[in-house]
Design goal:
By secondary structure, the chain is mainly α. About 80% of the residues lie in helices and about 0% in strands. The chain contains 5 helices and no strands. This is Rieske (2Fe-2S) domain-containing protein. It comes from Fischerella thermalis JSC-11.
Amino acid sequence: MISLEELVEEISRFEAIISEWEESQRCVAIGLKRAIEDLHKEALTRLIKSVKQESVSALRNAVQDEVVYGVLLYHELVKSPTLPLRQRTWMHTDKYR
């Protein structure tokens, strides 16, 4: 299985490449990224609502996976229970974007 760290590193490599592009090209890539993220967030939101109705314990088990938790945290669908909002936001922005 691929770790969250490896997946984030791959995204970072692509972001580094895109950062070298002309502004108009970067805007297209950023727009595409946002559209995909919006689609994923909506799908995850609906999935969570559906699973929550059937089995809260299944949802809790799924969130134990670092990749699942990282993606849900990125989309602000779960909260970090131990960190204040400001620190969660900083970590979220710095590590996953």
